[in-house]
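Q: Got one fold?
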Amino acid sequence: SVGGFEDAVLGAMLESRGLTLKDVNLVNVNFALSPSLYAGKVDAVIGAFRNFELNQMDIDGRPGRAFFPEDHGVPDYEELILVAHPDYAGTDKLERFLNVIDKATRMIINDPDTSYRSFISFRPDDLDNELNRRAWRDTLPKLARETRQTDPNSWNQFARFMRDRGLIDNIPDQKTYLFP
């Protein structure tokens, strides 16, 4: 779904099993991951969300199997991050935004049922379904309890992975992209 990055991830995963990208036929299915599997267009997909596609497939009576990148040669990385223009770093506007993220995350963790009801209240006919209930359940344990915490060692490992895979030329100084 995301060229370059996903090729690097898939390449590392294949190499962990003695294969290369040349051993597979890549088919771009965009974001139609589960439907492409159902239709037999592909045997596997990359880029699926852990909390979504497997649940969707199970609900549809077509259970799947996940191969997690971190179990196959890819260092852990943070999937959902916030990016701000450097001019906004340290501003009151950014601080207020981050405080709202902190508050919302704590609310979801501490009161998931009320939070889910708030989520579906936007469009209950579309959002209150088995897939979203399962995805919500599976997302809860993955939420960071400290939303502003970063692990510099993890970021360095992933930066080396990106450099070694040709996604970046040099490992940037963390001061240019990690803010306290």
Notes: Helices lie at 5-15, 33-38, 53-59, 92-110, 112-120, 124-127, 130-139, 152-164. The CA atoms of residues 91 and 97 lie 10 Å apart. The mean pLDDT is 93. The two ends are 32 Å apart (CA to CA).
